[in-house]
Amino acid sequence: MSSHVLILGGTAEARALAAALAARPGVRVTTSLAGRTATPGALDGDVRVGGFGGAGGLAEWLREQGVDALVDATHPFAESITANAARAAAETGVPAVVLRRPGWRPGPGDDWHPVPSLEGAADLLPRLGRRAFLTTGRLGLASFAHLTRLHFVVRSVDPPEPPMPPDTHVLLARGPFTVPGETALLREHRVDVLVTKDSGGAATAAKLTAARDLGLPVVVVRRPPLPDGVTAVPDVQGALDRLGLG
């Protein structure tokens, strides 16, 4: 019997899951991308780009396309997408899995300052430094635009758009990154504080090691909670097991 799995993607885990599912006989896999990255990497299976129009539009798509299982493998901070996926799955009765890589945890020597939001990070930042390495994504820069006395080094895959802080140096790069490379970057730009979301994963974790080695404080934006009644699996194998394809 064939089955159709829809992956809400955009992460390395989504890409790995699509490859694993596409290799299984009788499984059709479709990965949906929000379209926020101009040049996404290659994906196995079918690909669609763009939103669904909220939970109702996603539910309609699930019915029309005969989807048998839904995997939310979006970024840990894609809060609205995760909420819409949970509602659409409940409305249609389509089994749903949330695939979330584990968050980062501080270790000995780390000087972490957890905050609940980007706005909380902006409020705290002037007390910790004057030259910030900002790695929270190009869409959240407006939260820092009022900090006119700080210098920002901003790294993103695609060029950011205003509003953003007036004193900003933009670096366009895609991970994974290395500890030596991140250490050299922090030193070159005389960074004295790092700001990051708790994205988890190894691709961008090197900056945390570099910051610890250099004795820099790190402002960490905590992840939003999952919707009520929703639990997550931490890896691709967990998703395959939950789908009965492990």
TrEMBL record:
Q: Hey, which pathway is this one from?
A: Cofactor biosynthesis; adenosylcobalamin biosynthesis
Keywords (alphabetical) are: Cobalamin biosynthesis, Oxidoreductase
* Top-level taxon of origin: Bacteria
Q: Does the keyword Oxidoreductase apply?
A: yes
Oxidoreductase as a keyword of this entry, yes or no, is yes
Q: Which GO terms describe its molecular function?
A: precorrin-6A reductase activity
Q: Which GO terms describe its biological process?
A: cobalamin biosynthetic process
Listed PROSITE patterns: COBK_CBIJ
Question: What protein name does the entry list?
Answer: Cobalt-precorrin-6A reductase
Q: Which organism is it from?
A: Streptomyces cahuitamycinicus
